Amino acid sequence: CVNSGKDRRVHSLDCGAAHMLILSSDGKLSEHSISATANKSEMRLLKELRDKYIVQIACGDHHSMALSKGGELFTWGQNSHGQLGVGNQTAFTNKPQLVQELRGIPLAQIAAGGTHSLVLSLSGAVYSWGKNDFGQLGLGDIENKYYPSYIRALEHKKTVYISCGAEHTAVLSQDGLVCTFGAGDYGQLGHNSTRNELTPRIVTELFGARVSQIACGRWHTLVYVPSLGKVYSFGCGAEGQLGNRDTSNQLIPLPVELPSDWVNGGKLNQGNSTSEKVIQIIAGGNQSIVLCLKKKNPYVTLNGTAIAEDKEVDKWISNSDPKQWETIKKTIWLIFSSEACVNGSFLDKSRDKHFRTSKEISGVDMSAVLLFYEKMNKKPKVFQEMISAVEKLLSLLSSSPSSPEALRLYLIIPVLLRGQDNMSDCLLDRLAAAILSLQQKDLKVLESLWSNLEISFFKDLVSIYQRVSRINLCLFIMQARNSEEVTCEPHLNRTLKMLQILYQVNSSAGFKIQENNFYVPEVKMIWGQDWDLDEGPTFEQRIKNEISKRLETRALLKLTAYPCIFDMQDKIVVYDIDRQILFGIYNENSFLVPWFLAIRRAHLVDDVWQNLRSAAPKTFEKFLKVHFVGEQGIDDGGLSQEFFTIITRELCCPEAQIFRRFEDSKLIWFPSQVPGSEDTFFLIGTLFGMALYNMKIAPFHFPLALYKKLLDIPPTLEDLKELSPTEGRNLQEILDEDYDDILENMMIDFTIMKEQGGSIVSIELKENGADIPITKHNRKEYVDAYVNYVFNESVKKPFEDFRSGFLRGCPAKKWKLFLPIEFLTVFRGHTKYDWKLLEENTKYEDYEKSDQTIKNFWTVFHELPEEKKKNFLAFLTGTDRIPAEGMRHFQFTIADFKKENPDLFHPVANTCYHVLMLPRYSNEEILREKFLNALEFYEKFSLS
Predict the structure, then answer these.
(1) What is the pTM of this model?
(2) Distant-in-sequence, close-in-space partners of 884: CB < 8 Å, separation ≥ 6
(3) pLDDT tens, residue by residue, 312-329
(4) Domain 1-124+140-150's class?
């Protein structure tokens, strides 16, 4: 007789070879050692578990398992084969050990074999460990495992129940399929064989019969098929445990002979939901039990990890009984201070989606999480308890979750902390710290889960960390202004790192949301939102005058580790500061010496190449001033812009025969063979870098792919569509083709045709490519190889020369902040013109906007055709492009030329300062004549 304790009702019990566990209805556990000689047992209270509410127990031959309501798994006993799952440091322990490897996984069931152990998660994931000499762990080998190992063969099989024999294992799927593995010497696997199975194998004899229960004895197995009302057995029958009036073994499932008074029309229960009786099967060592129970008094059901369920939550919200409040508080604390409980809550069971949990699918119903938050937020008392529990949880998180299931809380917790109060913001910072402390492999899985969130929830997550970053940045700026040292506070670094990681996830996912969702506009507080980059007298003087707050400048540069927080204007400012530091503008003791580049218009390219070849590396750190030999004019920016405009045109023209030109896009790309001098592309790259370093527009007609490559971003098929629309369209059609026979008729293989030495040759895209036809299975590989050849393999030498030259010509590094499209815009400038906005932004010197000359000027200007208006920009600035900041930030000044006989003079432009010197013409017709003449010959008249 075993005494379970005064006034305690036994909930469940399980036996090993010489011990027994008894679990009471109030979650208390006792262990009883059973002597083979004495007719009594010795009880031992497990003091290590006295504060735990135990919901499940399992006994192996000489080891024990216990699952707590909080989702913790404890094991103790013999560990000679690793059956405790805690490593192999000890062969035996009588103190329950927490299985750390399963932390955070919401467990639905535990099971113990002779010397092996298994657990099942709420999402159907199965883990095994311990002795494996017959393959009973289902891992495909016979090596013992000392820590839980995921049975990958059961992935997404919708496993709902597990059972262990001495040396074999059975699992049951939601669809009623039974798989067995391990020792098969008695036929206990049901495969009509005595062979061992190292991986799960379906019991085909049961195929088509929807099994609802399984149970493993030591060397035999039972299954129940409710639709047939039959229990089947197979395996060892030496003790009559198969229930067939025989002691022989059975290799396949055969019906158990049940008592005749249970039979109704020859079948049990028939699966009829209206039946008053239910069947429960149990398998012991060499025994089998079939219970026929009344529905109102069924066999005890398994309790698992506690989770937040709708009915329970509604009770929390509606409760008005103070006596119940303590119980509710304990439940809330139990669930929301436990990784496993949170991870097991809010599962998306629609179409069994939680069974498909993987690195891409979280299995979380995010809408349910949001609804839960909204419910809880309406009851501040209950909500505050939950937040306090979450605070405890965040201090306990593991840095190495063992599966995607254990990462769900990182999707759930931000929704619970979206309240925009100090406590929530503080906990969001702690959550960020926990995420950033994850091992890299686990962080990658979390990033994958983020990338597969619905857009609204991903945007909400970004918004949460953007808002907290804005608050932290304001505090940081205040500190920078009041301190001699500039250090980014850890909390600011953490939230900004989170934002940057989310930005990279967004980028990899094809920009699910727009980049402006990541901008932190408070960065403008550092450099001053009203700092106008285009306003005179000189940029160098403006930098010295405006950036007197050096601590703030250093602060701004520290923040460049998080480029996602900057909009394009911010990035341009940061890049300007970076290059001005190299210029020496921030050094009070330095004397700014420019690089005077003297060149002849008639020999422009030759003179430039000669200068670039002879220039020392340090020369490129100086700011550029161009002098056209034999011409007047001092370069304060206008002449150098004119220089880049002219030389870009000369290098890109077809007559130069430098680049490969694509007629259908009018874009250029590198040739596969270097024309002319060996250093041509190195010099062009140097010139390209100089344009960026000196912030001049250089409209080379390169595709976006060039800027991607400079930023180490691989070009894609979309880039080929831009460069060569016809080729890109053809490749897309190959990807979109549905029928194999049409692909075969195309007669395409892994080759590409190209012109070489005046003839067309075939280049293999992979080894033996000419012998590999394109099919639906390899067409993506073909397209990727084709794109790679065009943008990488075929132009490796000229591009590498170009890149080397670019890095020489642009010693500043902060250009890496730009996105490819922003990078392109910095070089090419804008070609989207808003002429009305140009008029609105114009300033006047010795003129009033209401003066008749000004009115006449704008009347004439707006009547011009588009090309003439663009010519005016070139006349005014040296280029017909708008700088990267856009038309909104572009200004020019109209000044009175102050001539005694104004009708005799043409307007003159100062390209360095964007000033139009406009005489006060007597009427509109004279203004039109003189203005059009000036535009027609703008290259002559635009000298400063």
Answers:
(1) 0.86
(2) 568, 572, 822, 825, 826, 829, 830
(3) 999 999 998 998 999 999
(4) mainly beta
